[in-house]
């Protein structure tokens, strides 16, 4: 089992930020060919590896959310927990990949699918067209050991943009930088109900309650991550006093600034009034039913852009949430588009799910069926196959993904790998 950690170390040493995965793709192909797998690649960059007569296809995505120093990830293992120094760890979904590499070394009849750019809208899964040999898909992207996921949220990105016009900064005597910093961050799906504060919302609420105008504004790291930091440069007619201890205020030289954003009031209203977080709770599944995250504020070529990630456990509510968000921003003068729609994966207990549960119960007595308020690729992948495919998602315990606090429980990795092998053995002739 220690081989899995070594595989993870090797994976971690290769850059694989979303949209920048070429080196990782080539490494996967080389590894598969070394172990006598037939390797297929489609136009978008998904990699399908086949050997013998497989009945189970293992699946993981090979990109990661990059926050911090991900060019030189330093792994730390302490008391059975693996972390990274000053960066996201990439256990999502690198640990699933490591388990797949381990399984490829030990099985003669196996299919493995590595999908690309999952973290930026399930891009690989949504364009996957290669036919699978297997009738069962085992996704390794879940993040709670001992649980079996048979459904997930759908998602869509709502993008609000505003062309910026500027006015002379004549009557304002003071200029300040307000910096929301050192917030915890987290995954905008699985962590959205954990009361993790958003740096953008903290800054936005403060701006809404100050008599200021905006000179510049930026914040967040990824649209599917709860923002860790945000910064505004503002001008005021009187000295600025901020009561929120999470915000750092620094006076700036007034003579360095000549103009402010004409639509400052509308922008501050948008940030202050945006309803971040859980919008509705599913009492049956005991998870959020609808949620939204304002993940990134950016300014490029004179256009301010707000990137929001909306999620819902059914397509009807996803459309409603996206429509309400679009109407909210339009009412404040923004242009709005939607992109990256992927439908929800409706929960279903299939014969394959029951077999997975039987294998899981050899280690975890309860092994409940669950759904997750995040995007899993299963629904998109099976919808694009000509034959009926049954899908299930399992995985080791990963805490705080998409943040600098990301960590993975190694015992759960070894247990999950053992269960994966039991499932493969179940389907041997």
From TrEMBL:
| Keywords from the named record | Hydrolase
Stored Pfam families? Peptidase_M20
Q: Does the keyword Hydrolase apply?
A: yes
Q: Name one GO cellular component term.
A: cytosol
InterPro entries from the UniProt entry: Peptidase_M20, Peptidase_M20C
Example of a GO biological process term: proteolysis
Molecular function via GO: metallodipeptidase activity
The source's domain of life comes to Bacteria
PANTHER family tied to this protein = CYTOSOL NON-SPECIFIC DIPEPTIDASE
Annotated protein name in UniProt? Cytosol nonspecific dipeptidase
Which species is this UniProt entry from? Sulfurospirillum halorespirans DSM 13726
| Lineage of the organism | Bacteria, Pseudomonadati, Campylobacterota, Epsilonproteobacteria, Campylobacterales
């Amino acid at each position: 089992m220690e081989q899995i950690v070594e595989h993870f170390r090797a994976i971690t040493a290769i850059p694989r930020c979303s949209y920048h995965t070429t080196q990782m793709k080539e490494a996967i192909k080389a590894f598969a060919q070394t172990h006598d797998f037939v390797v297929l690649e489609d136009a978008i960059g998904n990699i399908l590896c086949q050997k013998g007569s497989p009945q189970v296809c293992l699946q993981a995505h090979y990109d990661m959310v990059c926050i911090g120093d991900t060019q030189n990830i330093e792994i730390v293992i302490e008391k059975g927990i693996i972390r990274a120094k000053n960066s996201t760890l990439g256990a999502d979904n690198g640990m699933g990949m490591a388990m797949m590499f381990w399984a490829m070394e030990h099985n003669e009849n196996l299919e493995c699918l590595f999908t690309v750019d999952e973290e930026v809208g399930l891009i690989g899964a949504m364009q996957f067209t290669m036919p699978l040999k297997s009738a069962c898909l085992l996704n390794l992207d879940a993040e709670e050991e001992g649980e079996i996921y048979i459904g997930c949220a759908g998602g869509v990105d709502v993008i609000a943009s505003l062309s910026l016009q500027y006015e002379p900064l004549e009557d304002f005597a003071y200029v300040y930088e307000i910096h929301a910093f050192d917030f915890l961050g987290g995954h905008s799906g699985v962590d959205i109900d954990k009361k993790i504060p958003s740096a953008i919302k903290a800054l936005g609420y403060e701006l809404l309650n100050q008599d200021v105008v905006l000179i510049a504004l930026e914040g967040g790291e990824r649209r599917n991550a709860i923002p860790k930091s945000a910064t505004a440069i503002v001008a005021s007619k009187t000295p600025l006093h901020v009561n929120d201890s999470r915000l750092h205020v620094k006076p700036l030289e007034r003579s360095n600034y000549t103009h402010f954003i004409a639509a400052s009031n509308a922008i501050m209203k948008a940030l202050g009034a945006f309803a971040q977080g859980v919008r509705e709770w599913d009492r049956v599944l005991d998870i959020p039913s609808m949620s939204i995250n304002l993940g990134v504020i950016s300014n490029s070529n004179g256009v301010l852009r707000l990137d929001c990630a909306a999620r819902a456990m059914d397509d009807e509510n996803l459309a409603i949430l996206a429509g309400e968000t679009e109407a909210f921003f339009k009412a404040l003068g923004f242009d709005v588009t939607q992109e990256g729609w992927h439908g929800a994966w409706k929960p279903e207990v299939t014969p394959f799910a029951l077999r997975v549960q039987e294998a899981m119960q050899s280690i975890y007595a309860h092994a409940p069926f669950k759904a997750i308020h995040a995007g899993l690729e299963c629904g998109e992948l099976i919808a694009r196959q000509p034959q009926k495919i049954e899908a299930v998602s399992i995985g080791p315990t990963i805490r705080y993904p998409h943040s600098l606090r990301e960590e993975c429980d190694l015992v759960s990795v070894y247990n999950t790998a053992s269960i994966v092998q039991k499932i493969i053995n179940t389907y041997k002739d």
